[in-house]
């Protein structure tokens, strides 16, 4: 599904150049659940952002289902994201003044489809993560765990083939973190490919493969028994 070939990402300011990713080559097959680990600042979010096409590599190629995304226009990438990708963040990123149902519907914003079917998709996504009874509440009325589950519903409402999660359990306590992991594993079992950045070794252990990054380089990629 994903093939990264000698990917690098450099940030340049007036004087300083930072290499966030250095010569990363990586293949991720459809249906995999990959955990990415590494110390703060090693390039994990940069890698996830490039996989999500919200950032572009400075060098190298990114193939998705055999198609080179590095050459495509912003409009084409926006369509790609809307049709195929779902994003989950550490800090939930819900919109404060929209209800939970409205927040989840944002996940369908750039997708085609009739109003009636959109409502059914939103309801199915809410039920899947257990926030259906909070549809008309606002984010601040929910616990952190509920907010993250609503954010997962927003990510999956369009039935993406690839889910990208950047420290999805980083702001949650043990129990809520475990719930999020169960939801992600269920989505993976149902066919979604998942790439998750985490600092939690026990959460990384639940993925089918673990990738370690150090100073922008991929230093290990190990299949795990799950
Ligand atoms: N927009 C940016 N401009 C300049 N440097 C950046 C930018 N984003 C990230 N970096 C740098 O790239 C490196 C990797 O960052 P990041 O991918 O966020 O790491 P991680 O997610 O592993 O903590 C860090 O040195 C960071 O300071
Ligand atoms: Mg990060």
Automatic annotation (TrEMBL):
What taxonomic lineage is listed for the species of origin? Bacteria, Pseudomonadati, Pseudomonadota, Alphaproteobacteria, Caulobacterales
Q: Which UniProt keywords apply?
A: ATP-binding, Nucleotide-binding, Transport
Tell me which SMART domains the record gives.
Answer: AAA
Q: Which residues form the ABC transporter domain?
A: 2-226
Task: Kindly give the Pfam families that the UniProt entry links to this protein.
Answer: ABC_tran (PF00005)
Note the InterPro entries from the entry: AAA+_ATPase (IPR003593), ABC_transporter-like_ATP-bd (IPR003439), ABC_transporter-like_CS (IPR017871), ABC_transpr_LolD-like (IPR015854), MacB-like_ATP-bd (IPR017911), P-loop_NTPase (IPR027417)
A GO molecular function assigned to this protein is: ATP binding
Name of this chain's protein: ABC transporter ATP-binding protein
Q: What organism is recorded for this protein?
A: Caulobacter hibisci
- SUPFAM superfamilies cross-referenced by the UniProt entry: P-loop containing nucleoside triphosphate hydrolases (SSF52540)
Query: Which CDD domains does the entry link to?
Result: ABC_MJ0796_LolCDE_FtsE
């Amino acid at each position: 599904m994903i093939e990264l070939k000698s990917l690098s990402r450099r940030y340049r300011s007036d004087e300083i150049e930072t290499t966030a990713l250095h010569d990363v080559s990586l293949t991720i097959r459809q249906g995999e659940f990959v955990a990415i680990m590494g110390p703060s600042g090693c390039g994990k979010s940069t890698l996830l952002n490039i996989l999500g096409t919200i950032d572009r590599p400075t060098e190298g190629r990114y193939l998705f289902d055999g198609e080179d995304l590095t050459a495509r226009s912003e409009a084409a990438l926006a369509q790609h994201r809307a049709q195929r990708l779902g994003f989950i963040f550490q800090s939930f990123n819900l919109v404060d003044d929209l209800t939970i149902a409205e927040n989840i519907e944002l996940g369908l914003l750039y997708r085609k489809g009739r109003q009636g079917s959109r409502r059914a998709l939103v309801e199915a996504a809410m039920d899947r993560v257990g926030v259906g009874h909070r549809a008309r509440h606002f984010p601040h009325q929910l616990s952190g765990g509920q907010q993250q589950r609503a954010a997962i519903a927003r990510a999956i409402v369009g039935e993406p083939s690839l889910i990208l999660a950047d420290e999805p359990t980083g702001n949650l306590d043990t129990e809520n973190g475990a719930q999020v992991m169960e939801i992600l594993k269920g989505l993976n079992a149902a066919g979604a490919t998942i790439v998750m950045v985490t600092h939690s070794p026990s959460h990384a252990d639940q993925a089918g493969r673990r990738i370690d990054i150090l100073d922008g380089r991929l230093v290990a990629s190990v299949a795990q028994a799950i």
